[in-house]
Design a protein that fits this description.
- The protein is an alpha/beta fold.
- It is 35% helix and 16% strand.
- The strands form four sheets. Strands 1, 2, 5, 6, 7, 8 and 15 form a seven-stranded mixed sheet that branches. Strands 10-13-12-11 form a four-stranded antiparallel sheet, covered by helices on one side. A three-stranded mixed sheet has the order 9-14-16, covered by helices on one side.
């Protein structure tokens, strides 16, 4: 049994930022839990391209306009304004000063900005092509220096503790749903513990692993979204799953992200025969078209011509020395896969990359459940709309991590924090469960989910495909729920249960929305304002 002032589930840029900002009050105790063995491991770690800063020719209004334009008419103007105004100063304060992240500079010591798709200015700060890794190294080091922050690894969240659902008290005592913490599965001890908290923060990342092809790490299976859904949290924009146009398409290395910064530095997309094609789909932006347009263009070329992949050519646009200096990680990973990117074009395909929807929150990261906050990719702040602008995800995690911490600190200072006793929360009961989770069943069911989502709820959708997906997922949900309720807990089983629930959420939202917009493309929809169809 554990009690803490604030429980943060997830340790990427959003969760770590919230913990750091709360830790400024030495009287607070903050517990950060992560399912990974290494606290550095998160979606943030794999971010290559960079994070939005602010150049000399830039301004908050210009950035906000770019965010809104990329969001295809769904972005909240207020959320875009908040991100554009608060993001760059927080980047300096939290990442450069507190976490001591050293972004790349030119010979005179000035920030070295790059550009990415749909940005009207060069404003992306980076650390080579391993920006996320550098950020996580700095944030974890800073957290380890905070005596009032406890980071616990190999802890998988099972479910949120919500009243009245988990309370032993009569239902009449409650007027609204409230979150008091979470049940956590200790992967080492293989037991479930109760974590009680005055405020709970979901910072669990995305859901790319419900798709067959994804750039996301293994933990991105929608755990936080599924828990929030079961608890009664409102979820918005779940149909908007962004597919990154360029993931490496080489056996044994599938899913490795080829950063958008490669196109930002002049890389062009070509067919296997060597023909550039993006001007046919986006005459204005060409290879720097928004991600939804670029991904569908590639998909269309592959489908129409029977290609297994297209090619991304940077070798003819930069010198070999410049490529190795600017993209050392991509160079190394491709070299291991047998590709010399200083000489040869890179085979790429689209892959599920980012969830633009999530738990609906206000401007402070607060959900409709009392004392429950959601920040980072699991949340829907309204910033990303129907299609995320490149390199804004890290900035969003930073801004709303800070905002949630501010709101939580105010609430705790005012005595608004929820209090309960362990006696009021039942212990996790596994009595009568004797069967161990069968990894073959878990793997088989997960692959079925991934194939359904890829073929029916992927880059191109239709009523028939979505109806088929929902029928098959509902059947699978029943099977998995029976499996879950008769089997001892296991991280893989927890993830499978969450994955099928999240897949259903996405598929149902996609069927409900008959209008193509952004990264939700219905081939059976009518053209409407804001559409970017190919």
């Amino acid at each position: 049994m554990n009690r803490t002032d604030v429980l943060i589930i997830g340790c990427g840029i959003a969760g770590a930022t919230a913990a750091l900002r709360l830790a400024r009050n030495p009287e607070r105790h903050i517990t950060v839990v992560t399912r990974a063995r290494d606290p550095h491991e998160s979606n943030t770690r794999y971010a290559q391209g960079g994070i939005v800063g602010r150049g000399n020719d830039d301004a908050p209004a210009i950035l906000a306009n770019d965010i809104i334009a990329a969001g295809a008419g769904v972005t909240s103007p207020e959320a875009a304004r908040i991100l554009a105004e608060e993001g760059p100063p927080l980047l300096h304060e939290v990442l450069e000063q507190t976490a001591r992240v050293a972004f790349d500079q030119d010979a005179s010591g000035q920030p070295l900005f790059t550009t990415e798709a749909a940005h009207s200015r060069r404003r992306i700060l980076h650390v080579g092509d391993s920006t996320g890794n550098a950020i996580m190294n700095g944030l974890i080091t800073a957290l380890n220096e905070c005596p009032n922050v406890t980071v616990e690894s190999e802890m998988t969240a099972v479910d949120l503790i919500t009243f009245p659902h988990h309370s032993r008290d009569p239902l009449d005592n409650y007027r609204a749903i409230a979150c008091h913490g979470a049940y956590m599965f200790d992967r080492q001890e293989r037991t479930v513990h109760r974590y009680l908290a005055g405020a709970t923060v979901l910072a669990t990342g995305g859901l790319g692993r419900i798709y067959r092809n994804t750039t996301n790490p293994p933990g991105a299976r929608g755990d936080g979204l599924a828990m929030a859904n079961r608890a009664g949290a409102r979820i918005a924009n779940a149909e908007y799953v962004q597919f990154h146009p360029t993931a490496l398409a080489v056996p044994g290395a599938e899913g490795f992200l080829i950063s958008e910064a490669v196109r930002g530095e002049g890389g062009i997309l070509i067919t296997p025969e060597g023909k550039p094609f993006m001007a046919d789909y986006a005459p204005e932006w060409k290879d720097l078209a928004p991600r939804d347009v670029a991904a569908r263009a590639i998909h269309h070329e592959m489908e129409r011509n029977g290609y297994s992949y297209v090619l991304l050519d940077i070798a003819s646009r930069m010198s070999a020395e410049a490529i190795r200096e600017r993209f050392p990680n991509i160079y190394e990973q491709c070299h291991k896969a047998g590709i010399d990117i200083t000489r040869d074009p890179i085979p790429v395909v689209p892959a599920a990359h980012y969830f633009c929807g999530g738990v609906l929150v206000d401007e402070w990261g607060w959900s409709n459940i009392e004392s429950l906050y959601a920040i980072g990719e699991i949340s829907c702040t309204g910033v990303h709309g129907a299609n995320r602008l490149a390199s804004t995800s890290l900035l969003e995690g930073l801004v709303w991590g800070n905002r949630a911490a501010t709101r939580i600190e105010e609430s705790l200072n005012q005595g608004d924090a929820l209090r309960t006793e362990f006696d009021n929360v039942p212990s996790w009961d596994e009595s009568g469960l004797v069967a161990d989770a069968d990894p073959a069943l878990i793997q088989g069911d997960m692959q079925t989910i991934q194939n359904i989502m890829w073929h029916y709820v992927g880059l191109v959708r239709s009523a028939e495909r979505l109806s088929r997906a929902i029928r098959e997922l509902r059947h699978l949900w029943n099977e998995i729920e029976t499996f879950y309720r008769t089997t001892k807990l296991d991280d893989g089983l927890i993830g499978l249960r969450n994955a099928v629930e999240v897949a259903l959420i996405v598929a149902q939202a996609a069927r409900h929305n008959r209008q193509s917009r952004g990264c939700h493309y219905r081939q059976d929809s009518a053209v409407s304002e804001g559409d970017r169809l190919i």
